[in-house]
Amino acid sequence: MPQVVTVSATTAAYAMEATKPPQRVPRSTLIEEQLQVFAERAAKSDDFRLRALLTVVQPPALSLHFLTAGQTKHEQATLKEALAAYLGSAS
Q1: What is the CA radius of gyration of the chain?
Q2: How far apart are CA 18 and CA 13, in angstroms?
Q3: Spatial separation of the C-alpha atoms in residues 7 and 84, rounded to whole Å
Q4: Does residue 16 or residue 62 have the better pLDDT?
Q5: pLDDT value of position 66
Q6: Which residues fall within 8 angstroms of residue 89, CB to CB, at 6 or more apart?
Q7: How far is CA 88 from CA 14, 20, 77, in A?
Q8: What 3 state SS string does the chain have?
Q9: Residue 68: what pLDDT?
Q10: Are 60 and 29 in contact (CB under 8 A)?
Q11: 91, exposed or middle or buried, with CB in 10 Å at 0-12, 13-18, 19+?
Q12: Residue 15 pLDDT > 80, yes or no?
């Protein structure tokens, strides 16, 4: 006679957690980490070719920081301020 074993959904989920494939790291994250290691290695060495190459291929986060550094956050205006600006520009 077969024996029936019941398991709660929570227990089954814990058991299946080990069989899941690991999450893939985004390619951009791996590239950024490798560029950071490359930048550190180039800073420590006296090889000018490495430093020149690093100026051509900059880490994305640093480039993005400099591209967006000049942008300022615009505060929202109240209804009265918006109407005053509109009426002031219309006349």
Answers
A1: 28
A2: 9
A3: 67
A4: 16
A5: 64
A6: none
A7: 65, 63, 15
A8: CCCCCCCCHHHHHHHHHCCCCCCCCCHHHHHHHHHHHHHHHHHHCCCHHHHHHHHHCCCHHHHHHHHHCCCCCCCCCCHHHHHHHHHHHHC
A9: 63
A10: no
A11: exposed
A12: yes
Q: Which residue carries 């950024």 as its tokens?
A: 32
What is the C-alpha to C-alpha distance for residues 17 and 11, in angstroms, rounded to an integer? 10
- Indicate the length of the chain as a whole number: 91
**DSSP H or E stretch at residue 41:** helix 27-44
Give the helix/strand (H/E) hosting 51.
helix 48-56
pLDDT digits (tens, 9 = 90+) for 19-78: 888 888 777 777 778 878 888 888 888 888 777 777 776 656 666 666 666 666 667 788
Residue written as token pair 């077969």: 2
Identity of the residue numbered 75 = E
d(CA 49, CA 43): 12
Q: Give the 3-state secondary structure percentages of the chain, helix then strand then coil, rounded to 5.
A: 65, 0, 35
